[in-house]
Amino acid sequence: MIKQKSSPAPQRGHPLPHGTTILDHGINFALFARHATAVTLIIESTGKTKNTLEIELDPELNRTGDVWHIFLATDDRDFSYGYRLDGEIDIKDQGLIYNSDQTLIDPLCQNITGRRWGAEHPLANTPLCRLTINNFDWENDRPLKTSMVDSVIYELHVRGFTQDASSGVKHPGTYLGIIEKIPYLKDLGVTAVELMPVMEWDENDNVFIDPETGKKLKNYWGYNPLSFFALKSGFASDPDNHINEFKTMVRSLHQAGIEVILDMVFNHTGEGDYKGSTSSFRGIDNPIYYLLDENNHEYLNFSGCGNTCNCNHPVVREMIRDSLRYWVMEMHVDGFRFDLASILGRDRKGHVLANPPMIEIIAQDPILRDTKIIAEAWDAAGLYQVGSFSQDSRWAEWNGKFRDDVRAFMAGHTNSVANLATRISGSSDLYQTSARTPCNSVNFITSHDGFTLYDLVSYEQKHNLRNGEDNQDGDNHNISWNSGVEGDTDQEEILNLRYRRIRSLALILILSQGVPMITAGDEFGRSQKGNNNCWCQDNSTSWIDWDLADNNKGLLRFFKKCFALRKNNLIFRRRSFFTNGLEQEITWQSLVPGIENWSSDCHTLAFLLQGKGKGDDFFIMLNGHRSESADFIIPPVPGKKSMWKRIVDTARIAPFDFPAPDKAIKQDGGDKVQIKAMAAVILQSM
Predict the structure, then answer these.
(1) Are the C-beta atoms of 5 and 73 separated by less than 8 Å?
(2) What domain range is 616 assigned to?
(3) Which among 147, 169, 289, 411 could disulfide-bond with 281, CB atoms 3.0 to 4.6 Å apart, if both were Cys?
């Protein structure tokens, strides 16, 4: 049982900093709760006998403004704590919903009692917050500060990455499991892993049932945070040591030259609407932490998940800033991707702000200055800000228009060539303002949300029945083409076309100007059997099948070669947009040099990239026809008496798709090259 050094009478304590502060002579607790009329600190010992100490804070002695605080003079550090708050229950007029029987999580708690994945989460029943004792040896770890122009991002789910037995790791589904795959990641050529949410959430809060098995589904993805500070303990091999395991993973990735980017969910919490479970924010100060309708105080739902965080309230802004600082300073992460980031720009009524303070604070905070900040520049209410999220050059964006335009061309859609050219050259229509560059565009074709790359070329309709929502969930606008047969097939012609399209899609993604991002498993053809919303599939549907890395080793080789080609040639990693001076840096054509075709019915595009030295020129030909070959005429190597060599042909299989230098076919300017349907060919000057 926690014992105080002196009198058991409460001591005043300090209102700042919020949360818990361990001092030499005790512990300070501070909690913001403007509308509460009473606050009780609950402390529970962690031994076999659960002794509980309840300290009711004196509103005169233990309150400064809106902050309740108390100091405990104690040597004890091994206990759990939480808060019980009392106040009015008045949803309609004030949005208040206090319940003095609930034990709540401290919003700034960095450590929630560890539990294994799938174990019951005892929310509202017992104190869950723990003190964080920092005893980790970082071994002089420092931020890598890899420039955006040199970055290659690899999105993964911590559990799904190694949970399948085929991963062969000692600690499947964990932070330590990722460490065992570092040699693979390094060999692939990625410079950063982007982890799907690792903040604590309750994976058991899903109400849907798998109609085939009758079993309750999990909240697998984790976009339902209970805390913005506390790490997910269920991703650790030892849940009681989860913080050090995460730090070990970060340190090991840094030693291999790989950065760690976290997917942050500040747009909503796992408390849902008024029917949801209260774990923290709602029970502490509902109208402060959430956007509420000013007439009936129902939740404004711009997230699609029942509630929306009040991100531009000063108290919430401070909490978000402190969360980001914590992950950088204490956990050594290198950057953040902000889920539904457009919500960060809404005011307390949900209106879109012209100059959102939250977005500016993140970009200009001195502690975060070296971190990568990436916005998913839209929300669930239809606000779409790709290219206009922020004029601050610090902000990069998931370029949803790149995804859509590349998909359209490689599905044979009309009116797609001009858009494709804009995306390949860095999306200047979106980012050529306010000192921004192609590096403000994070280019992707697939992500966790939607089809995998293999499914993109194998399905035209979503197949989400096993999610338990009668196939009503998930996006209907996939811009996909199944290559002639929906789903699984053994037809060799269809399979060849699918893998040809995957190689062409990969080539466009990796060699376009901007920052490429791929999703784990796409590099060797992972499938989710047409499920485009696997948020609830904690099983082989979502887990990475590592046998495919061997079965489709030719495709994996192709990805590695593309990443190496990008890394070894600065022309694919420009820090500025193309210019059209005396010597054009990029020249477009359709089938014939000097003749462009931007018509809606055109399906062919080629472009010449002019370098500055020998072997620095590239000519790339793309055929977006579904079934027709196309004959391209090659231009001469610019200003040089030399030949071309064919270094990539996505219509061929490994190793001929990316042949060894001495096996490359030589071509002269004026030669005609036939490109198969949905194929791409790259020539490099000799």
Answers:
(1) yes
(2) 586-685
(3) 289
Q: Can you give the CATH number for the domain in which 69 is found?
A: 2.60.40.10
Number of domains observed in the structure of the chain: 3
Residue 455 lies in a domain: no
Q: Would residue 376 show up in a list of annotated catalytic residues for this protein?
A: yes
Q: Evaluate the omega torsion of the peptide bond into residue 516 and state whether it is cis, within 30 degrees of 0.
A: no
Same structural domain, 567 and 676: no
| DSSP per-residue codes, 606-631 | EEEE--SSTT--EEEEEE--SS--EE
Candidate list 376, 405, 455, 617, residue with the active-site label: 376
The answer to whether residue 141 is catalytic is: no
- In the chain, the N- to C-terminal Cα span, in Å, equals 76
Per-residue confidence band for 5, with pLDDT thresholds at 50, 70 and 90: very low
**Distance, CA of 410 to CA of 592 (rounded, Å):** 21
207 falls within a domain: yes
Q: Are residues 408 and 514 in the same domain?
A: yes
CA 318 vs CA 64, 315, 322, 405, 515: distances in Å: 17, 5, 6, 38, 30
Q: Out of 334, 339, 523, 649, pick the active-site residue.
A: 339
- Give yes or no: residues 302 and 348 share one domain: yes
So what's the pLDDT on residue 2? 58
pLDDT digits (tens, 9 = 90+) for 252-261: 999 999 999 9
89-109 pLDDT, tens digit per residue, is 999 999 999 999 999 999 999
